[in-house]
Amino acid sequence: MIQLLPQSDTLTPNTSNPQETVDFISSYIDKYHCKEMDIDISYMNILDACYVTTLCAAKHFIKYPEGKINWIVSSELVREFNRDLELGNSSYSL
Prior knowledge:
Elements: E1 3-4, E2 10-11, H1 18-31, E3 32-33, E4 36-40, H2 46-63, E5 68-72, H3 76-82, E6 90-93
Helix pairs in contact: 1-2, 2-3
């Protein structure tokens, strides 16, 4: 059964381990209807944030090609790093 959540919720993984964060977000995408998402990973360093956003954006794109993820990050460098890898479903906020 697909569960619907309010649009205003921001998902904040409770781990700083990048692989656990990817697993958590991937599981969330599989379990819930989340065509539009806000995910706060501002606590992660730049490299880990790039890793998480790239893998999770690809996972989200597979399920919701027209969906969007707003990533809340700590640095503009995350957006710059992912610019060439962009699937078109991510935006970044500081």
